[in-house]
Amino acid sequence: MAPRQDDADELCERQASSGIDGLDKILRGGFPRGEMHLVQGASGTGKTTLALQFLLAGVRAGEAGLYITLSQTRRGLQAIARSHGWSLDGVAVHDLSLGDITEQLAAVQTVLHTADVELGELTRRMRQAVEHARPPRVVIDSIGVLGLLAGSRSRLHREIMALRQFLAGYGCTALFIGEVPSGSALDCHDSVAFQGLAASVLHLEHRTPDYGEVRRRLQVLKVRGVPFQSGHHDFRIRTGGLAVYPRLGERVPEEYAEFRQIRSGLAPLDQLLGGGLEHGTTCLLIGPAGAGKSTLASVYALAAARIGEAGAIFLLEERPETFTARARSVKLDLQPHLDSGRLAIEQMSTPDITPGEFAHRVRGAVEHSGARLVVIDSLMGYFNVMTDISMLAVQMHELLNFLNRRGVLTILTTSSEWLLGIGSRQVVDMSYLSDSIIVLQMFEAEGGIRRCLAAVKKRQGEHDTSIRELCISPDGVRVGTEPLRHLRSILSGDPVPAGSGRRQDGRGG
Questions:
Q1: What is the DSSP letter of 276?
Q2: 225 — pLDDT class (breaks 50, 70, 90)
Q3: DSSP-assigned letter for residue 2
Q4: Which of 3.40.50.300, 3.55.40.20, 3.40.190.10, 2.40.70.10 would CATH assign to domain 261-497?
Q5: Which of 13, 40, 207, 374 is deepest in the core (most CB within 10 A)?
Q6: Is 397 helix (H, G, I), strand (E, B) or coil?
Q7: pLDDT in tens, 113-159
Q8: Domain regions of the chain by residue span
Q9: Cα–Cα distance between 123 and 372 in angstroms, integer?
Q10: Rounded to a whole number, what is the distance in angstroms from the first to the last CA of the chain?
Q11: How far is 42 from 14, CA to CA, in rounded Å?
């Protein structure tokens, strides 16, 4: 159920937007106001960029921002802002370089100053900057400098408590940035002293695969008093800031239960499937390369477009030009529907895209473009996106559950070799996630290569299990009206005449 407007307005008053749509969804609106929050992670994970987006979101809302930097320089912050096309107008940058403080203290002291003196001077200047600007939003970068001067976690804890009380007195929503060395345990760094005092804690991390772009993800470790979406969420740093892709773990409020059918337009195929494929279900097309999986997916995409339903095709192995040209060569002209916007084809770059971003693209096609049919071609390409095969079934189950509840007909393609496994390679059986399974096969007969198909599974209603010939030619796509009764062992790819005494292992009976 959608929140009432009064509730939405109250949430807006209680939450300060991060300036990042995906992160606000995870945080249920943003950071709790009047509190201090911790953003931690290794160098290069995007902490400073996130902090700047938070302050600039305040500027757009009429709230002044203050960036107190203890490690970055003013020039460095301006360079980061320019790289994203931002202006820092409305954001006051207060550079409290530890080197400058040390030099000034040395000029007025006749004895060697201590870290205690440096820490006291640093916190005094931080307070002065806040008292002067009185900003609703503050960023303090970073906790590492405070920890260095404090010398112990207990002293750091006391300083942070004093800062929290001071900032709360001015009604500041404050983001503290903490440095966590890459690969270190989350309880072995200075920001640990902060976590118990912070209203929320965000952990950012990245890893570099053997090939492709750096993969980044974040995790909300806590948000005091506010429900949030847990788990890891992928994000990308691009021109314009962080783009965060929340997981699809939440249930869709209203579950689709009509199961309205889409007919392929090929009468024998529809007969095999008990009338057609249903919205709110998943169909898996399995077969070797060249068996016609992508062509059959094009048949359904075209059939949906012809009855006015939007569709989206996500390609993980080939270019859109190749996909449309192949379809056109067998009289499946997708171009008019692409031109009208009813059908969209998007190529995914598997070395660069993350599973979270892929799910975000699919979700956008459904929620913003109204797609009622989604084709993912192919699962092998999706596996290349995942890289971690142990999580493939979990990620795909989450995505398919979302699509099914939205009433989308999802068509997946995969090679039979990959699904069944070759040698000792680890594979995942995705068949249990599918409501319908159509097996395609090529076989040799009468001196040529022929194709066939069979519906081996269908949860929604009865279906015909007979094997029919599939003909793909310049004249179009055709499915045989009669079963291939004169052959047996067809799906093995090594058929024999039905009356033959030859056994399936190739020896005489």
A1: S
A2: confident
A3: P
A4: 3.40.50.300
A5: 40
A6: helix
A7: 455 677 888 889 999 999 999 999 999 998 888 888 887 888 888 88
A8: 15-245, 261-497
A9: 57
A10: 65
A11: 30
CA dihedral 119, 121, 123, 127 (to 10 degrees): 180
Domains 15-245 and 261-497 share a fold: yes
Angle made by CA atoms 397, 303, 377, in degrees to the nearest 5:
40
- Paired tokens of 350: 């598997």
Give the sheet arrangement for strand 173-179, strand by strand.
Answer: 91-95, 65-69, 137-141, 173-179, 36-41, 200-207, 215-223, 232-238, 241-245
Count of beta carbons in the 10 Å neighbourhood of residue 68? 23
Nearest to 233 by CA among 251, 210, 254, 249: 249
Q: Are strands 487-488 and 496-497 parallel, antiparallel or unpaired?
A: antiparallel
Give the pair of three-digit tokens for residue 39: 């953003």
Which amino acid, residue 38? L
CA distance 273 to 275: 5
**Residue 299 CB neighbours (<10 A):** 22
Residue 15: phi and psi, rounded to 5, are -115, 140
State the Cα–Cα distance between residues 188 and 509, nearest whole angstrom. Answer: 70
Nearest to 434 by CA among 491, 359, 385, 376: 376
* Cα Rg of the chain (Å, integer): 30
Gap between the Cα atoms of 61 and 54, Å rounded: 11
The tokens for 40 are 């931690």
Take residue 463 and report the two structure tokens written for it. 């279906």
Name the helix (H) or strand (E) containing 502.
Answer: none
Least confident of 243-247, 420-424, 433-437: 420-424
Q: What is the pLDDT of residue 187?
A: 54
Identify the H or E element spanning 91: strand 91-95
Q: Using CA atoms, how far apart are residues 352 and 384, in angstroms rounded to an integer?
A: 10
Query: Is 15-245 a domain of CATH 3.40.50.300?
Result: yes
The predicted-structure confidence for 327-348, as pLDDT tens digits, reads as follows 999 999 999 999 999 999 999 9
- The Cα–Cα gap between 79 and 485 comes to 72
Residue 266 exposure: Cα atoms within 13 Å on the Cβ side: 26
**Residues 6 or more apart whose Cβ sits within 8 Å of residue 312:** 343, 344, 345, 346, 362, 365, 366, 369, 371, 373, 374, 375
Cβ atoms within 10 A of the Cβ of 391, count? 12
Whole-number Å distance between alpha carbons of 283 and 403: 12
Q: Which amino acid, one-letter code, is at 92?
A: A
User: Angle between the 143-150 and 115-133 helix axes, to the nearest 10 degrees?
Assistant: 140
**3-class DSSP assignment, residue 291:** coil
Q: The tokens of 254 are what?
A: 């209203």
Q: What is the largest CA-CA distance in the chain?
A: 108
151 φ, ψ to 5°? 85, -25
- Residue 487: phi and psi, rounded to 5, are -130, 155
Which residue do the tokens 């001196």 mark? 447
Asked whether 380 and 407 are in contact (CB, 8 A), the reply is no
